[in-house]
UniProtKB/TrEMBL annotation:
Keywords: ATP-binding, Nucleotide-binding. This is Stage III sporulation protein AA. The lineage of its organism: Bacteria, Bacillati, Bacillota, Desulfuribacillia, Desulfuribacillales. It comes from the Bacteria. Residues 151-290 form the AAA+ ATPase domain. One of its GO terms (molecular function) is ATP binding. It comes from Desulfuribacillus alkaliarsenatis. The keyword Ubl conjugation does not apply.
Length: 324
């Protein structure tokens, strides 16, 4: 059950509040946000609400106010009562917990030489609920596989935040790793650079998400360095990473392609036009690095595919929703 890892860390007072939410709403929770002395916020699929002692409310005066004790209990739970154990993750601003859920943290930053050393006096938490939805990529697979050359297309998923790009990327990885006999797609060796521990949700080296039987995960490693490392060490046929955009990322993708390895990745943007407004991404598009572009939005619902495009940015498919 997706909520088990989260229930373990929540303060008792907040667990009780969640019991008052109808299951239909509970299953759509994407984030639980705690801000000290502020109303407890729950982000659902297409809206945000606040919680009171009797359930969901739009009235801030009746909403439950997060206490300092709530924040202390949550911090102790995610650190297993050892702040030293999560020191490295604190520098990144989040902690990954069992189940692959990620807890974002903000407070007072302690810097050393221009680099974040740790975060103290933590005042806000954002519990991001990890939900793996298997099968969402199945119908797309024929458009992501070159049946003539017998290899996956270099693919870029383009999406604004919280529109399902990581969910889709995760399932594409699973599909290629397993292979699909019905579609005549073989299984592939896949290497994943999971810089933010979000794709696999690894805990002590054990992946919490199903990325398939032939997938190797390099956890908490910067994307550019990780791609180079995996080419040298794991002989992958596909490399998958989330959220590229820097010059170093672009150079690493070039090396992946020169090594004869397929690349599947994502980028933040509302559409291809916005993406082309960024010099580094525009250069990659003009060079026709990617064979396929999948563009997502949240209208009419999260995970709606607004278009699939080829390397020339010609549309290949009509609008469809892949998450019900």
């Amino acid at each position: 059950m997706w909520s088990q890892g989260i229930e373990r860390i929540l303060p008792k007072s907040i667990k009780r509040l969640l019991l008052n939410i109808p299951k239909t709403k509970l299953d759509t929770i994407q984030e639980i946000r705690l801000r000290i002395y502020q109303p407890l916020e729950i982000c659902l699929a297409n809206t945000s609400v606040f919680l009171s002692n009797i359930g969901i409310t739009a009235d801030l005066s009746n909403a439950y106010k997060v206490t300092k004790e709530d924040c202390n209990q949550l911090l102790q739970a995610i650190s297993n009562h050892s702040m030293y154990a999560i020191e490295d993750q604190l520098r990144q601003g989040y902690v990954t917990i069992s189940g692959g859920h990620r807890v974002g943290i903000v407070g007072k930053v302690v810097a050393d030489g221009g680099h974040i050393r740790t975060i103290q006096n933590i005042s806000s938490f954002n519990i991001r609920v990890a939900k793996q939805i298997t099968g969402v990529a199945t119908k797309l697979m024929p458009e992501l596989y070159d049946s003539v050359r017998k290899q996956p297309y270099h693919t870029l998923i383009v999406s604004p935040p919280q529109c399902g790009k990581t969910t889709l990327l995760r399932d594409i990885i699973r599909e290629f790793s397993r292979g699909n006999e019905r579609l005549s797609i073989p299984s592939y060796k896949i290497a994943v650079v999971d810089e933010r521990s979000e794709l696999a949700g690894s805990i002590q080296g054990v992946t919490q998400a199903d990325l398939g039987p032939r997938t190797d995960v390099l956890d908490a490693c910067p994307k550019a360095e990780g791609m180079m490392l995996l080419i040298r060490s794991m002989s992958p046929q596909i490399i998958a990473v989330d959220e590229i955009g820097s010059k170093a990322d672009a150079n690493a993708v070039d090396e992946v392609l020169h090594a004869g390895v397929s690349i599947i990745t994502t980028a933040h943007a509302f559409n291809l036009e916005e993406l082309m407004g960024r010099p580094i991404m525009n250069e990659m598009i003009q060079k026709k690095v990617f064979d396929r572009y999948i563009v997502l939005s949240n209208r009419p619902e999260v995970g709606t595919i607004t278009g699939i495009y080829d390397k020339n940015r010609m549309k290949l498919s009509m609008r469809r929703a892949w998450i019900g």
